[in-house]
Amino acid sequence: MKGATLVALAATIGNFLQGWDNATIAGAMVYINNDLNLPTSVQGLVVAMSLIGATVITTCSGPISDWLGRRPMLILSSVMYFVCGLIMLWSPNVYVLCFARLLNGFGAGLAVTLVPVYISETAPPEIRGQLNTLPQFLGSGGMFLSYCMVFTMSLSDSPSWRGMLGVLSIPSLVYLFLSVFFLPESPRWLVSKGRMDEAKKVLQQLCGREDVTDEMALLVEGLDIGGEKTMEDLLVTLEDHEGDDALETVDEDGQMRLYGTHEHQSYIARPVPEHQSSLALHSRHGSLANQSMILKDPLVNLFGSLHEKMPEAGGNRRSGIFPHSGSMFSTNADAPHGKPAHWEKDIESHYNKDNDDYASDDGAGDDDDSDNDLRSPLMSRQTTSMDKDMIPHPTSGSTLSMRRHSTLMQGNGESSMGIGGGWHMGYRYENGEYKRYYLKEDGTESRRGSIISVPGGPDGGGSYIHASALVSRSVLGPKSMLGSAMVPPEKTAASGPLWSALLEPGVKRALVVGVGIQILQQFSGINGVLYYTPQILERAGVDILLSSFGLSSISASFLISGLTTLLMLPAIVVAMRLMDVSGRRSLLLWTIPVLIVSLIILVISELVHISKVVNAALSTSCVVLYFCFFVMGYGPIPNILCSEIFPTRVRGLCIAICAMVFWIGDIIVTYSLPVLLSSIGLVGVFSIYAAVCVISWIFVYMKVPETKGMPLEVITDYFAFGAQAQASAPSKDI
User: Fold this and answer.
1) Residues 469/474/476/477 CA torsion (nearest 10 deg)
2) Is the pLDDT confidence value at 490 over 50?
3) Backbone φ and ψ of 466, nearest 5°
4) Range 25-35 burial, b when 16+ CB lie within 10 A, else e
5) In 3-state terms, what secondary structure has residue 346?
6) SS3 at position 562
7) Which of 422, 416, 229 is nearest to 307 (CA)?
8) Closest CA to 189 of 72, 15, 75, 106
9) What is the rounded CA–CA span in Å between residue 261 and residue 605?
10) Which of 60, 364, 378, 448 has the most CB atoms within 10 Å of its CB?
11) How distant is the alpha carbon of residue 519 from its chain centre?
12) Residue 445 pLDDT > 60, yes or no?
């Protein structure tokens, strides 16, 4: 995971620059006003230009990133930061300064919008939340260091606001260097464009190993949007392929064979008996069809059931069928049976064919054509008349040799079907097409499964593991069997944004979650508390204490602001540790109540005067608690969720919609705050914020599912399945 972590750190420098600039402009405005004698409206315009620039660039950044890639947009962000820093260092008048602030907004908008997407697309599921909390940490760290710089410069006789703002070009130059020479392109974006060789190399860099077959297969499957999906409850065992005894098509008693992405790797699966299926599948289907709370989204219960530790259904407790839940970025370099031969050979050329080539007969062609086919790792074209009654193995060019005696592990004991977070992927050949199975072993949170002894298994009795499966048609199905040619992904993307995909039930449901949580976050009070903090600390006597050290009131305010941001950093570190353990939803549900209580106590301290010391202590404590718990939950999680819940092909477009809502909300809150303070006062403003936080908690409880540890492709598939299942619930049994 070292490669993914370093890449995330380098990308997050963009958020560091945003935090740095936010603090710098707050401090520099005092000296800008003194130097240029700006009227109040123009002062607001100087600050607002950055927000305007971020809002404008956000409206097009997502579709452009889907077209050109994530990396070019991050490079553009670093260039914007660098150029605006140089212009602000020069700035002969307010017009040039406003132009520089506009460029700064472009850079900030790109960073805030695309860095979480980039990290989510390059990070392993097990630590994706932790790495995606880095933008919050580095952003707050940038604010702290900037306040320290502004405070130091304020101690001089004639502080230079141009110097304060121009320093931004130095760290932005580092960001530019890393963006150009270190950051790779997102492997998911590369796969969506058919650039398979490049995607493979990036995955090898991130994984730290050569064999990335499972990851490549997962990323290709992630190109799917919508489609019919079902859920099955299975008992699964790993099949051994050594020897010469051929096992006929496994279909007796509901048994079936699931193929892996590696040659000579498959599972034998069978449906769970009715009396055992109630442990998992029936409860999950019931969560979709029968809701005890009308307004609660069934997806919340569905996702929650995936994270529950299911009870063991008898049998001895031994190592599971997936003894070491394969990680997308595991360090296992010696996958059993090595790399599949077909996947390694010029697979990118498959996407350079014309549509007529896609419509050609998949059963025809020579060996080279098979090697160049994206589907070649998963299916064979070399079947003969002797094989017609056999299931063709997706990764070998001949009929498989199956032994009736299965084992639970292969090779070094690692399952190479792991796609991260305890999830696994397999394929089933049925009725002329391949179906994709996302498998989750019930009770794998401890990473040890229970083996169920099932009568009627191989040799009259066998060991199976209980697993839940989300089933849908694979995007790699052959044309002659699917009935239509598979369109090259890069041609689909080049035609423009997939606006029609926004109407898919799963995408619409994800947009409700993303847009809703972004709006509520902006109106939860963070801007108001930041605005009010200096007054609260002044009331607590902190300014008097600092003035005793010979500090001016301006320098004291800078130091107070720096100390306030410093308090956030330990809280963010705690959030980083909990993000992939407790989960996003859980963190929101127990941090938002603290925000509510803090705001209520602030209102009470304004209404009820106990004593100056007590009131000051209450206000200061509430502000500290609010900041710490906000950055633990409501600060980073909305961006994390939005970067996880949308399909690969429309992720940039959907993120742009959510980010635009974020920036518009930021502008509304920022410029409505002074008006609200003058009309309804501080008590009224904080009462509104507390009410919004209550609404936020209800929204999270009702609508926001838990996504920790799940591959992005699995998350989007479950959104699609849940939306489809709920829509069909009144008419048929799910």
Assistant:
1) 120
2) no
3) -85, 120
4) bbbbbbbbbee
5) coil
6) helix
7) 422
8) 72
9) 63
10) 378
11) 18
12) no
State the pLDDT at residue 279: 43
Q: Looking at the DSSP assignment, which residues form a beta bridge with residue 465? A: 236, 451
Taking Cα atoms as reference points, which of 118, 215, 297 lies closest to residue 729?
297
Length of the chain: 734
Tokens 């097409």, located at residue: 433
**pLDDT score for 277:** 54
* Helices within 208-341 (DSSP H only): 213-221, 274-277, 281-289, 298-307
pLDDT at 488: 45
Q: For the packed helices 712-728 and 281-289, what is the interaxial angle rounded to 10 degrees?
A: 60
Among 68-82, 434-448, 599-613, 676-690, which stretch is predicted with the lowest mean pLDDT? 434-448
Contacts with 674 (C-beta within 8 Å, 6 or more apart), sequence order: none
Question: Per-residue pLDDT for 241 more than 70?
Answer: no
DSSP per-residue string spanning 76-107: HHHHHHHHHHHHHHH--SHHHHHHHHHHHHHH
**Structural contact between residues 142 and 23, judged by C-beta atoms closer than 8 angstroms:** yes
Which residue's structure tokens are 């096992």? 247
The C-alpha R_g of the chain, in whole angstroms, comes to 28
> What average pLDDT score do residues 473-500 get?
50
* Torsion, Cα of 464, 469, 474, 475 (10° steps): -130
**Structural contact between residues 428 and 435, judged by C-beta atoms closer than 8 angstroms:** yes
Give pLDDT, residue 557: 79
> Residue 43 is encoded by which pair of tokens?
């002062």
Residue 437, H or E segment = strand 433-441
d(CA 166, CA 15): 17
d(CA 131, CA 503): 31
Residue from 292, 207, 263 nearest 379 by CA: 263
CA separation for the pair 522, 662 (Å, rounded): 7
Among 462, 453, 704, 426, residue whose Cα is nearest residue 586: 704
Average pLDDT over residues 303-323: 51
Contact of 72 with 183, CB cutoff 8 Å: no
Q: Under DSSP, is residue 404 helix (H, G, I), strand (E, B) or coil?
A: coil
Within 10 Å of residue 367's Cβ, how many Cβ atoms?
13
Q: Give Cα separations from 223 to 191, 220, 268, 492, 501 (angstroms).
A: 8, 6, 27, 11, 12
Q: What is the DSSP letter of 481?
A: H
Average pLDDT, the chain: 76
The answer to whether the beta carbons of residues 504 and 724 sit under 8 Å apart is no
